[in-house]
């Protein structure tokens, strides 16, 4: 039987041999056969192995793990072992659960259930661990009302924090919209080209219509129409914002059939990295999430093209604002006309003298 001095020497030797193994794979669980394979235990004596393992457990350098393959050990660092040795039994029970939870954190109610500690004892343990900067509270976007704890040396996972889409536990819609706008603008530049001839056609002034109304009738009809539809888009050579967007829309034409220059996920990810438009780092998975959202919103669509095989192209209707996308009925002035019931030939308002109808036909 090995002496205490021999056990102490073997303990140090086994621990030093296990450090590089755990460094290469922090999740590794060491088994009895793994320790014997180190060829440190004399003659592979099982009793000596158990004594060495118990000594490592006593000094908190090993911790026992039970899984589907049976019992094993995980390695702790020397600094972490010192922290454990300074704790009471109750404090160690609480801290070990928080330690095992990793960057996901653990709910206080779960700790109480597993340790079966009284509320006052549990609170005392949490206060002690917090005062030693060993643990800290964390917020989880999945469970915003729960009191969660995590090791102070760890940062919460993306699952807990919500990744780049959350700021201080709140969904950052402004950042999400800004990121999608940057991506959409880039995709649009690779999807459409500006036609100068189409732009000139869109800027062409509408033909004048001979009006058969009295000045009073014209004034009354204009007031009613302006109230419902807004002032005319083109008057005296001036173009309002809505008309300008429509003119831009008319001038942007899609790339021809067989075009292979649509951007894929890798190109878009590289573009975001190089543009440095955001303080947060967006991974390829983050970019894919935004692309999926824009596909669901009918702003872009997947196409089989380009070097990556799957690329993205912008949909032409997405160049318009939401209120400008309309059906056949709402696109025509008649569908939104506040004096539709008065519209008839010979009346104060009619198709032949409707200035909005004339503007719409000339677009």
TrEMBL record:
It holds the Pfam family RNA_pol_Rpc34. Its main location: nucleus. Keywords: DNA-directed RNA polymerase, Nucleus, Transcription. SUPFAM superfamilies: Winged helix' DNA-binding domain (SSF46785). GO terms for biological process: transcription by RNA polymerase III. It is found in: Nucleus. One of its GO terms (cellular component) is nucleoplasm. Belongs to the eukaryotic RPC34/RPC39 RNA polymerase subunit family. DNA-dependent RNA polymerase catalyzes the transcription of DNA into RNA using the four ribonucleoside triphosphates as substrates. Specific peripheric component of RNA polymerase III which synthesizes small RNAs, such as 5S rRNA and tRNAs. This is DNA-directed RNA polymerase III subunit RPC6. It comes from Hyaloscypha bicolor E.
